[in-house]
Design a protein that fits this description.
The strands form six sheets. Strands 7-11-8-9 form a four-stranded mixed β-sheet, covered by helices on one side. Strands 2-5-3 form a three-stranded mixed β-sheet, covered by helices on one side. The chain starts with a helix and ends in a 7-residue tail after the last strand. It is 26% helix and 32% strand. It folds into four domains: 38 residues; 60 residues, Trypsin Inhibitor V, Chain A (2-Layer Sandwich); 68 residues, Trypsin Inhibitor V, Chain A, CATH 3.30.10; 67 residues, 2-Layer Sandwich (Trypsin Inhibitor V, Chain A), CATH 3.30.10.20. By secondary structure, the protein is α+β, with helices and mostly antiparallel strands.
Length: 258
C-alpha cells in the first residue's frame, strides 16, 4: 500500500493521468463532431405555413423547397373544398430535404348520408336532427294539417325524399309543414229533407251546432222536414268553421228542388 501511495506521487503517474484526461476529452469531441457531421445538425429548410392555402398552392410551395408530401382528406361543411386545414410538422419547423410533410385537406366530394326519419316531428325537432346529419334546411311551405309546424314532406332538388334515402352531406332540402288549420274547418252536411232530430244529429256529428229553427206551413211539427238551411251546401261552399251554427227552416211541404 505504501508503494502505491509513493507511485501516486511520482512524475510518471502525473504524466499518465494528464495524457488519459486529454485523450478522453479528445475522444468525446471526436464523437460529438462526427455525429454532428453525420446528421448535419442545424441544416435543413423551414416548413412553410400551408394551412389556409389550396392544395395546389401548398404543393407548389413544397416542390419549390424540395419537400415531399402526403395528403389525407376530411369533410367539413363550413370549409371550402381543397383547402389545407392541418399540416405536420408545424410551420417554421426545420426539416431536411425530401422530408415528407403530411397535409389534411377538405375533400371536394361530400360523402352521402342516409336521410333521417323526421316525418311527423315538429320543425324544431327536425332541424336538430338534420343538423346532426349535416343537412341544411332551405325553403319551408305549409299545407292544411291538424298539427302546426309538423313535418309532412321533405324535398331535395324537386324530388320527394324518403327515410334512408342517400343524399350528399351538406345538401339543402325543402320542408312541407302543417299549418295547424286542418281541423279548423269541417265539411258542411246537407240536411235538407231530414227530420229535425235527424238534422241536429247530422250537424253535431260534423262538430256544428243547430242555429235558429223556424217553420213554414207546418201542420204537424213531428213530421216536418228541413226545406232550407243557412249556410247552404253549394259548389262554392263545402266547408265551414268548426262549431259554426246552421239555421234550419222546416215544413210539412216538400223541400224545393236545390
Amino acid at each position: 500500500m505504501s508503494k502505491f501511495l509513493a507511485y501516486l506521487k511520482t512524475e510518471t503517474f502525473r504524466k499518465n493521468l494528464i495524457i488519459s484526461i486529454i485523450s478522453g476529452i479528445a475522444f468525446i469531441l471526436l464523437i460529438f463532431f462526427s455525429l454532428r457531421y453525420y446528421t448535419r445538425h442545424g441544416e435543413g429548410v423551414p416548413v412553410p405555413k400551408l394551412q389556409g392555402l389550396t392544395v395546389e398552392q401548398a404543393i407548389e410551395l413544397l416542390d419549390a423547397q424540395g419537400l415531399e408530401y402526403h395528403i389525407d382528406s376530411v369533410y367539413q361543411m363550413d370549409k371550402p373544398p381543397g383547402m389545407v386545414v392541418e399540416q405536420d410538422p408545424d410551420p417554421n419547423t426545420n426539416v431536411k430535404m425530401n422530408r415528407t410533410i403530411y397535409l389534411t385537406i377538405i375533400t371536394r366530394t361530400a360523402p352521402d348520408v342516409g336521410f333521417p326519419d323526421i316525418f311527423e316531428k315538429t320543425f324544431l325537432e327536425a332541424r336538430a336532427i338534420l343538423n346532426n346529419y349535416g343537412i341544411k334546411i332551405g325553403d319551408t311551405s305549409y299545407i292544411s294539417d291538424i298539427a302546426r309546424d309538423r313535418v309532412l314532406q321533405a324535398q331535395f332538388r324537386g324530388k320527394q325524399l324518403n327515410k334512408g334515402e342517400q343524399i350528399p352531406k351538406g345538401s339543402l332540402i325543402s320542408l312541407v309543414l302543417g299549418d295547424g288549420k286542418g281541423a279548423s274547418e269541417v265539411d258542411l252536411p246537407n240536411v235538407v229533407g231530414l227530420l229535425l232530430n235527424e238534422a241536429i244529429f247530422s250537424l253535431k256529428g260534423s262538430s256544428l251546432n243547430p242555429g235558429m229553427i223556424s217553420y213554414e206551413n207546418v201542420t204537424d211539427s213531428t213530421t216536418a222536414r228541413v226545406i232550407k238551411q243557412f249556410p247552404a251546401l253549394s259548389d262554392s261552399l263545402t266547408k265551414v268553421s268548426i262549431g259554426s251554427s246552421v239555421d234550419l227552416i222546416l215544413s210539412n211541404e216538400a223541400a224545393p228542388v236545390q
